[in-house]
Structure formats: structure tokens, C-alpha cells
Specification:
- The protein has a domain of 60 residues.
- It has three helices and three strands.
- The protein has a three-stranded antiparallel β-sheet with strand order 1-3-2.
- The radius of gyration is 31 Å and the shape is elongated.
- The mean pLDDT is 78.
């Protein structure tokens, strides 16, 4: 005899003592899950992101040809004419992609003026 009422399959618990998971049809799925399934087209392939490099003052001249002493770079930063540095240890440093973007922007400005 069972105590406590009906013992249909819906009320019984399966392995582990947890209730059986719900099985939803496509029409019953929440809007956030509506597009999830095995018939969807694959996600677009994005190129791998390039890792940011940290560059120092001497790299500015070697890679981009920017010849300026530390006080000039500091003045340009204050005037908004050069990207802001950050400290890496006790040295001024920049991310290479920020300097690349700055050099491209400066190149575009010089060609527009001419």
C-alpha cells in the first residue's frame, strides 16, 4: 500500500532524489531558447584576436619611428596629442594596438591637410 496518495510516474522522483527534468516542445520553449537546437546554422567564424603587446619608449622609435624624449611625450599626453601611458614596473608603457591606432589616425590627419 502506498501512503500519501497517488503514485503516478509524474509524481515519482528518479535517480538521485531530484524531480525528473521537464521536457518542453518547441512551442513551449522560452523566447531566449527558441533558436537553440541542432538545426541552426553554425555561428560565423571570427578571426582570433591578436594578443596585446606592451611597448616602451625605445620601442616607439624602433617600431613606429616616433623620436621624442620623455618630457615631450608627457607634454603631448597632457595636450591630448598622444595616448596616455600606464606604468609597467617603474617605466612608462603603452599597448601596441593603441599606438597603431594613433599612428594611423595621425597619418589620416596629415593626408587630409595636404
Amino acid at each position: 500500500m502506498s501512503r500519501g496518495g497517488a503514485t503516478s510516474k509524474d509524481n515519482r522522483e528518479h535517480k538521485g532524489g531530484y524531480p525528473e527534468p521537464l521536457k518542453l516542445g518547441d512551442a513551449e520553449k522560452p523566447a531566449a531558447l527558441a533558436g537553440i537546437g541542432h538545426n541552426n546554422p553554425p555561428a560565423p567564424i571570427t578571426p582570433p584576436r591578436r594578443r596585446r603587446r606592451i611597448v616602451f619608449k625605445e620601442d616607439l622609435e624602433r617600431i613606429w619611428g616616433i623620436r621624442a624624449n620623455a618630457s615631450t611625450l608627457w607634454r603631448w599626453e597632457k595636450q591630448g596629442r598622444f595616448p596616455k601611458h600606464f606604468m609597467c614596473g617603474n617605466r612608462n608603457a603603452w599597448y601596441d594596438d593603441v599606438i597603431d591606432a594613433h599612428v594611423e589616425c595621425m597619418g589620416a590627419e596629415t593626408t587630409e591637410v595636404a
